[in-house]
Amino acid sequence: MLLLGITAPPAIAEGDAARGEKLGYTCLGCHGVDGYRNAYPSYRVPKLGGQKAAYLVIALNGYREGTRAHPTMMAQASSLSEQQIEDVAAYLASLSAGRVAAGGAAAASLEETTVCLACHGQNGIGLSPTWPTLAGQHEDYLVHALNQYRDGTRKDPVMAPMAAALTDGDVALIAKYYSRLDGLETTKAD
Ligand code: HEC
Ligand code: HEC
Questions:
Q1: Residue 152 to residues 45, 61, 70, 87, 117, Cα–Cα distance (Å)
Q2: 104 CA distance to ligand 1 centroid (A)?
Q3: What is the Cα–Cα distance from 151 to 33, expressed in whole angstroms?
Q4: Residue of the nearest CA to atom 29 in ligand 1?
Q5: Closest by Cα among 95, 163, 190, 174 to 135
Q6: Is-contact 120 126, C-beta < 8 A?
């Protein structure tokens, strides 16, 4: 009782997938349609099914805070409270999660991805909850993401130097490689 009044503000509760499901309807309008494209520049909307919940939270906060620039996603993320971000991330990550967590067999290694394995895994499944899974992601989205780190429109202290070391040729090879591994799925309501 002595602590009353000096306790920290209420922490954000862990994401609740059931609450997140309602929020997820809007998202599936783009993320739930196979091969749906962003108009300009043209690339496929990223697959979120089986992506790591903690990474989805980081990504959504990135749009809210402007470290990631995409007008639609900035508007979507800004319309959600911190708790809603946790909830919708828990819901989206829960779709296909069982299959994706297992991953496919470790692929024959590609020289260009040697440095990436430490975080994104031998089979493209992120090794920590905050390191995204790349396996199965759309090839053109992966190219777009790596180029955004290279040109600084997407800011991340870990990925910026990683991407800066890549040539256009490396980016093309790497994107093709990860997109062909078993992993992420187009988000579908179960
Ligand atoms: C109008 C289409 C559209 C809608 C609706 C939409 N998104 Fe997106 N989303 C996109 C596009 C396009 C991107 C890629 C943007 C970029 O280049 O950063 C994206 C990116 C994301 C990412 C980053 C994925 C990654 O691998 O880094 C997350 C997370 C995400 N969206 C979640 C959501 C959630 C949650 C909702 C619903 C509240 C939602 N989106 C609604 C089109 C949409
Ligand atoms: C030290 C750990 C680490 C290493 C090594 C690393 N990454 Fe990453 N990667 C991350 C983190 C953390 C993020 C999320 C950053 C953010 O929020 O934008 C990320 C994000 C990405 C994304 C964006 C995923 C998405 O869904 O938008 C791609 C693509 C990527 N990394 C590719 C690579 C490649 C290719 C390499 C090797 C050349 C590599 N990474 C090396 C930690 C790492």
A1: 20, 17, 13, 29, 23
A2: 25
A3: 29
A4: 56
A5: 174
A6: yes
